[in-house]
Specification:
Number of helices: 15
Distance between the termini: 48 Å
Order of helices and strands: EHEEHHEHEEHEHEHHHHHEHEEHEHH
CATH architecture of one domain: 2-Layer Sandwich
Bound molecules: magnesium ion
Radius of gyration: 24 Å
Largest sheet: 5 strands, mixed
Strand content: 15-25%
CATH class of one domain: Alpha Beta
Low-confidence stretches: 358-369, 407-412
Oligomer: single chain
Helix content: 40-55%
Mean pLDDT: 86
């Protein structure tokens, strides 16, 4: 059994991960300011990652392409290729896995490693081992990482942010008051915008001020979370690094329907794909996955079919997002009015939900706030359906339709 008081935990964070992967494929991108960003044509066009040169122009993650280009007119924009990032993520984690079986993925490009019980096999020096891992990732995979080392996950995570790229930071029981306590409270994991505002209103600005505040007052004002963050600020976090689970048991999720009558109008099509998108999204949520690619196949009355696919603007398991992308595909690929006999929507290039969510959670852009809200609403719907049956909640637009969509349709 691990002694919780003396754990050695690494938090490994790839630097500008998506941009670094693009540079591996196209080394010429290293010489120009470059960023990976969502669909430039939509308002969702936000910077997902930037390279070192773009950083010099102060291009920031989560700002819009428009904002970034104002600062850096020559900025090269790459579309995200989640499949490639997923593959790199697997390779990076495979290297981590050579040093411990306690590897917990945290976001698409971050992992916690607990090396307490394996360190002695690799020389016994936490800093030297971290440097070795960092160098291997750089030479074997081509991306740089930063590592935070501490006795708990909270400070390890904080440490990996302090020096980057390509650096290691050690936060010990001896130095944490100097290193951590001067930082703003918002640097602490799980302290978001609202909590920061609340803490500021109590006069707490730094992690040190939080650590030395009245725990009971915080518990009274902020509930359980108040006590929790007080403990975190003091380095009291016993949460274990979980064993690496099996990721991606599901490769794709699809749902198809042959309608009772042909779909003719845009309204027919919308009703049909609402039901399909709803089913696909619910199944993604049940599998704790998000998709990055949406495919639609349409069959006409002569049984001829076409297939088209599109990238989702952000990884998603939300009905309306899948619906919107599917509708966009159909509008581009099909002349509305031409009868449709059957439609299938398939979600693929799946990411584990926590990977996708953590990656996006620091997007404080309104778009993602809406997204989180939609996700929460749909999770509540899932819970009600689980309790009261699949038909207990349906979309208003699908009620009493005559195309055979909704209710207890059969899976195809
Ligand atoms: Mg990162």
């Amino acid at each position: 059994m691990t002694n919780l008081q003396n754990r050695i935990i690494y938090h490994c964070d790839c630097n500008g991960f998506f941009a670094s992967v693009e540079e591996v494929f196209r080394p010429e991108y290293k010489k120009v300011p470059m960023a990976v960003a969502g669909d430039p044509e939509t308002r969702r066009g936000i910077i997902l990652a930037k390279n070192e040169l773009a950083k010099k122009y102060n291009v920031k993650t989560a700002e819009t392409i428009w904002q970034a280009k104002k600062k850096c007119p020559g900025l090269i924009i790459c579309k995200p290729r989640y499949k490639a990032y997923n593959e790199f993520c697997e390779r990076v984690n495979a290297i981590y896995g050579e040093y411990t079986d306690l590897v917990e993925r945290f976001g698409v490009d971050e992992s916690f490693l607990d090396v307490t019980n394996s360190l002695h096999c690799f020389g016994g020096d936490p800093l030297a081992l971290a440097n070795e891992i960092k160098e291997r990732i750089k030479t074997e995979i081509g991306v740089t990482i930063s590592i935070g080392i501490s006795w708990n996950k909270i400070f390890a995570k904080l440490g990996s942010d302090l020096k980057k790229p390509d650096a290691v930071t050690v936060i010990t029981k001896e130095n944490y008051k100097q290193v951590v306590w001067q930082l703003p409270v918002s640097d602490l994991l799980f302290i978001g915008r609202n909590t920061t505002q609340a803490l500021n209103s109590f006069g707490i600005r730094t992690i040190g001020e939080l650590a030395n505040f009245d725990e009971e007052f915080l518990a009274k004002k902020l509930g359980k979370a108040g006590r929790q963050i007080y403990k975190f600020a003091n380095g009291q976090d016993d949460s274990p690094v979980k064993l690496d689970g099996e990721y991606e048991p599901v490769k794709s999720v699809g749902k198809g329907l042959t309608f009772k009558r042909d779909l003719i109008t845009e309204r027919d099509i919308k009703t049909g794909i609402t039901v399909l998108a709803d089913s696909v999204a619910a199944r993604l949520r049940a599998a704790k996955m998000k998709c990055t690619t949406i495919q639609v196949s349409i069959k006409d009355v002569e049984f001829k079919s076409i297939q088209r696919q599109k990238q989702a603007p952000v990884p998603t398991n939300v009905t309306t997002e899948i619906f919107n992308t599917a509708l966009k595909i159909i509008k581009e690929a099909w002349s509305i009015g031409k009868p449709i006999r059957a439609i299938t929507i398939t979600a693929s290039n799946l990411l584990p939900e926590n990977m996708a969510t953590v990656q996006l959670s620091f997007f404080e852009a309104p778009a993602s706030a809406d997204n989180t809200k939609a996700e929460n609403v749909e999770k509540a719907v899932d819970a009600i359906r689980k309790k009261h049956g699949k038909g207990s909640i349906t979309h208003a637009s699908t009620v009493n339709n005559d195309i055979g969509a909704g209710g207890s349709h059969k899976e195809e």
